[in-house]
Each structure stands twice: as structure tokens, then as C-alpha cells.
Design a protein that fits this description.
608 residues, seven-stranded parallel beta sheet
Length: 608
């Protein structure tokens, strides 16, 4: 078998990976060939051994059976306890909840467990938790768990439900830019639009995302569907060889309304939901792949495990706080096919301006509430881009003949006369200016301010005075001042050692967080959890502003400044990045004598 470059690199390095890690994830984009990699790993390293392959849905199980059955002796798990596992086959296929007793017996015998769509693994859920516990307690000493996913992150504030508790490392496979260059994937061409009359501001997202029950009516009332159809008509005329599209909707009411709108355009369309029978669904998808059906509208069933390489237009109609959902759904259109040179991504959900292009998404083994609450700002990604004197992101404000505003989001040179790429209008809003995105408060501005102000102030201050007043600074601090001081303490305590992987980064970060929590608990200091981290507090402390008094500001700067003379620039940078993660987590999770986390238990400090 001729493997792709990234697949061969993983195969070549697998013996070293297996020695270093017992449970690991291989991360590679949708369409990169993760299933082929799994099959080759079984062939080269596990021939004659016992392998379990798990996924979370039956439709994925069918696909895995077809892919792996060509080269291996495979068997889908039966639902009854009437057989011993691995009787006349080597590879057992199952969902995470099938025939638990047989699966438990198989885990005890398995040499390798492969988990497809591994971002679905919940270490604190009902399905995978039991599997992980069985593996940890009864699995063979030399057995391994290999996860496969394009998006290794779980959007949850529950610190007992983090991917890092299920896997001890992420092995980076191919990145998307590499696959674009090799022609394995096609580049996305984004067409983002902001729907002015879609009001999401008052929707409660405490559950972790926009609730469908509130989201769907807001979409129906807005011009989103009309916008999507208008934009689609424009883009389908430009695409080659012919338009084949997938439309992602949040619920059936939005999907049905979208189907009606597409039918009014005279285009062929089918609707697929979780209630669509498997046989009927496969027939629809086959017709779509053959080009007999131009548009497939779906609700919650095609974002994972479905592939039609001829799909060249993605229409995203579900605003979300989930990078995983955004990345997975766009990835459905990026597989290469003959005469296909790109995939148009029509985004009327503001997910592009919220998360950014899918090829630039960053993933994390650990998350907290603030890590997704910030995405309530539908321009979050744009807000974090450097403020450029030459270029800015604009929102087209032109009113079209249809009565809709163009609303296209685009980047342009501030001093050129070029208008909106979609409609040509010069009527536009500078998003950075309109949103009042102060560069001193975004990540880039804060970073610059920290590394300019700390050494400058530290050099001029009386170190002895501010060190002597340290206890007073902590005990007399107000809530914003405690946040600033804790950030500075985190910078002082967290390791600046280099990390070679995401898991190494988080191991060192959480060790630092545990030290900071221990300090706070020992000194009877409590951080009350907030909705989000206010980075302006850090700016205020560094600038000697109004929220942070001189005592707390100077003691915090002292804690940081003491390290600048004796620490390399690279180590200072690593400490800063980890300290920022620590204070963001502490701000939204809080810290008290009741903490009981996988990496820190307050009772151990109190009882010491």
C-alpha cells in the first residue's frame, strides 16, 4: 500500500510512540486518511493480535466494517452474551455501549484499542468511562489505546470530563496546509456574512452552546435563510465542475424551511435527519455523490463520518460556540476530487468571524467555561488579529435590490478604493473600530504591554519596600486586585521548561495551577468564579490604572520582575503563556478550600 507522507511518518515513529505513551491521540484533518492509517498499523504491528475498534454511532460502525474488512478478519459485536470475543477473527468492531459484558471481556484480551472520533470520549460519561476504567484496571500491561480525530478538544467546564484524563498525549499527524500542498485536500474559500437581524445576544448559553429551542426560532425570524439562498445562487454559478452542496442546520424546523427555500429556487434537494432510516439515508447520499441531488440539508448527522469528495460548497447555518462542530462540518467539503480545485464555505452563522478559518484552529486537551463563553462575541477571531495600520476587516453595509444588506465580512487595505468583493459597494463598517477592539486588551496587546512594562517599572522601583508589603497586598486585595496578583504569582511559580507537545504544555501548566491554588488555600484567599476573565484587569495593573491600587500593582510587578534578569527570553515567554492560561482558568472556575479537581485537592493542603 502506498501511504501518504504523514501516514508513513506515523508508521515509522510508532515503536517510539508506543514506548512513550500508553493512551494517545493521532490528530489529522478530516479526509487525511486516518482509517487507512489505522488499518496499516494493525497490519504492520498487530497481525495475529487482538484489536478493538470503537466509535459512537452505528453508521460509523458500518463504514469502519467496510474499510477494515478488506484487509483484516473483522466482526461486529453482537448484542447478546452468547460468544467469547476473538473466536475466529482479530478485529472487533463496536460502539461504546454495545453488549457491555462481551466488550469488557474483549478489553481484557485486547492488545490495541482504536477509538474513532476520539473527541467524543467522555472520561466522566456513561459509555467511554466504563471502557477506560476497565482498560485501566484489567487491560494488558503492554496494551495501548489509540484515538483518532481531527479536533482533540471537548467543550466542557467539567474538569473530570477532559480529554487529558483519557489520553496522555496528542501525536500531530498532517496539518491542513501540508495536505493542501500535496493535493490531498482542497483549500476552502470562505464567504462569511453577518446576519444583522439575527439576535443571539439574550440567549442563555450556560449549557455550553446556543440551545436549539431558542436558536431555531431566532433563525426562522431572521433573514439568514434568505441570505444563504441568495449567496448560494451567486456562488453555484462560479463553481466547477458543477455545484454539489451540504447545508448544516441546527434543527428540523430550520432544515425544513431551508429545503422549501431551495425548492423555490428550482434546485434538487433532500433532507436528512437522525430520524431518516439508514437505507433511505444511504440512497440519498448516493444520489448526492452521483450528482443527481445538488443539495443535501442535514441536522446533526453529517458533520462526522460522512464523506462525499465531490461536495464543493458548504453552507453553514448553525451559530455555535463549538470549534469542533465548526471544524468538523467544514471539513466535509475539503476532500479532493477530479477537477475540484477548492470548496466554497458560505457562512451565515458568523462562525468564521468567531473561530477563524478551520485550517488555523488551535486545540487544547483542557478547557473551562471561559474558553467557550468568549465565543459569544461573534467577532472573537477578528478581535484577536493584530491591529494593522494598513488593513482591517470590514462589514459591507450595502442594501441590495432584494432588500437585504450584503453583510459580507472581508479584509481590505484601508487606503485603497476597492469595495466589497461580493457586491462592489464602498459602504462598509470597520469592524475593529465599530467593536471598539482596543489593541491593549486583546491577547497581542497584553503580551506587548507585559514585556515592555514589567522590566521598565521593576528597574526603577524600591524592591525592599514592595517585598516587605507583600502580605498586606494579598490580605487587603479587592477582587480585581486578587486576580492581578494571582496572575503575577502564576508567572512566578509556573515552569518555563520547553514542551514538545500539547499534553506536555498542559502537564506543566496544570502543575503550575496546582501550586497557585495551594498558595491561595494556604493563605485563606478565595477567588469567586466569574462569567469570564476580564483581561482589562491585567492591563490596569500593568499601567497603574484605576482598578488596581499601587500596593497590589507594584507587588505583582515585583513578583514578575524578579525573574527577568535571570531567565532567558524563551523561558519568560513560556511562563507568560502558561500563566495566562492559569489565570483564565482560575477566574472562571474559582478557587476555594473546597476544590476537588483531578490535579488538585484542597483537603490535602488543609490537612497538611
Amino acid at each position: 500500500m502506498n501511504l501518504r507522507r504523514w501516514q508513513q511518518e506515523i508508521i515509522d515513529g510508532l515503536p517510539t510512540i508506543l514506548k512513550a505513551h500508553k493512551r494517545f491521540i493521532v490528530k489529522a484533518p478530516t479526509g487525511a486518511g486516518k482509517t487507512v492509517l489505522a488499518s496499516e498499523i494493525i497490519r504492520q504491528f498487530y497481525t495475529g493480535k487482538k484489536v478493538i475498534v470503537l466509535c459512537h454511532r452505528l453508521v460509523l460502525l458500518e463504514q469502519l466494517e467496510g474499510a477494515l474488512g478488506k484487509a483484516h478478519r473483522v466482526q461486529k459485536l453482537n448484542l447478546t452474551k452468547n460468544e467469547e470475543p476473538f473466536t475466529d477473527y482479530d478485529v472487533l468492531l463496536s460502539t461504546s455501549t454495545r453488549a457491555k459484558e462481551i466488550l469488557d471481556d474483549a478489553i481484557k484480551l485486547a492488545d490495541l484499542i482504536i477509538i474513532d472520533e476520539a473527541h467524543r470520549v467522555s472520561p466522566n460519561g456513561t459509555g467511554y468511562k466504563r471502557i477506560l476504567d476497565c482498560f485501566n484496571e484489567h487491560g494488558k500491561d503492554d496494551a495501548h489505546i489509540l484515538g483518532l480525530t481531527a479536533s482533540p478538544e471537548r467543550r466542557t467546564a467539567d474538569q473530570r470530563d477532559q480529554l487529558s484524563l483519557a489520553f496522555d498525549a496528542i501525536i500531530d499527524g498532517a496539518d491542513m496546509e501540508q495536505l493542501f500542498e500535496e493535493g490531498i485536500l482542497v483549500k476552502p474559500r470562505y464567504r462569511p456574512h453577518f446576519i444583522h437581524d439575527l439576535d443571539l445576544g439574550n440567549i442563555d448559553v450556560s449549557c455550553g452552546d446556543f440551545p436549539v429551542a431558542k436558536l431555531a426560532p431566532a433563525i426562522i425570524k431572521s433573514s439568514m435563510i434568505s441570505h444563504a439562498c441568495t449567496i448560494y445562487l451567486d456562488e453555484r454559478e462560479k463553481i466547477t465542475p458543477k455545484p454539489v452542496s451540504a447545508w448544516f442546520c441546527p434543527d428540523v424546523t430550520v432544515a425544513e424551511t431551508t429545503v422549501e427555500a431551495i425548492q423555490e429556487l428550482g434546485l434538487s434537494v433532500e433532507l436528512i435527519t437522525a430520524q431518516t432510516p439508514i437505507k433511505e439515508r444511504m440512497q440519498m447520499l448516493k444520489a448526492h455523490e452521483m450528482g443527481e441531488v445538488e443539495c443535501i440539508v442535514s441536522v446533526g448527522v453529517l458533520a462526522e463520518g460522512w464523506d462525499n469528495p465531490h461536495c464543493n460548497i458548504i453552507v453553514h447555518m448553525r451559530p455555535t460556540l463549538s470549534k469542533v462542530l465548526w471544524g468538523q462540518s467544514v471539513g466535509r467539503g475539503l476532500r479532493a476530487a477530479p477537477n475540484k480545485d477548492s470548496c466554497v464555505v458560505i457562512d451565515v452563522s458568523s462562525n468564521w468571524s468567531t473561530f477563524g478559518p478551520v485550517e488555523k484552529l488551535k486545540w487544547s486537551l483542557w478547557s473551562h467555561r471561559g474558553s467557550y463563553m468568549k465565543y459569544k462575541n461573534r467577532f472573537e477571531w477578528i478581535a484577536q488579529q493584530p491591529v494593522d495600520e494598513q488593513q482591517s476587516y470590514y462589514l459591507c453595509d450595502q442594501k441590495l435590490e432584494s432588500g437585504l444588506r450584503c453583510s459580507h465580512v472581508y479584509l481590505k487595505n484601508k487606503f485603497e478604493d476597492g469595495g466589497c468583493p461580493a457586491c462592489g459597494s464602498l459602504s462598509a463598517i470597520d469592524i475593529h473600530k465599530e467593536q471598539k477592539m482596543d489593541s491593549s486588551i486583546n491577547d497581542i496587546g497584553l503580551h506587548r504591554l507585559f514585556f515592555e512594562r514589567i522590566p521598565a517599572i521593576y528597574e526603577e522601583m524600591n524592591h525592599h519596600i514592595w517585598r516587605t508589603l507583600g502580605d498586606t497586598a494579598w490580605t487587603g486585595s479587592e477582587k480585581p486586585e486578587l486576580i492581578f496578583l494571582t496572575f503575577c504569582k502564576a508567572f512566578a511559580l509556573v515552569s518555563g521548561e520547553p514542551s514538545t507537545s500539547d499534553s506536555d504544555f498542559w502537564k506543566l501548566t496544570l502543575e503550575g495551577e496546582a501550586k497557585v491554588r495551594a498558595f491561595l488555600v494556604e493563605n485563606r484567599l478565595q477567588i469567586v468564579k466569574a462569567e469570564e476573565m476580564d483581561h482589562a484587569v491585567l492591563v490596569d495593573g500593568l499601567m497603574h490604572g484605576r482598578k488596581i491600587r499601587a500596593l497590589q500593582a507594584n507587588h505583582g510587578i515585583l513578583l514578575c520582575g524578579e525573574l527577568f534578569d535571570e531567565t532567558s527570553e524563551e523561558e519568560l515567554e513560556r511562563k507568560y503563556q502558561r500563566a495566562l492560561q492559569i489565570i483564565e482558568r482560575l477566574a472562571v472556575m474559582g478557587c476555594s478550600s473546597q476544590d476537588n479537581l483531578p490535579y488538585f485537592k484542597a483537603r490535602d493542603i488543609i490537612g497538611a
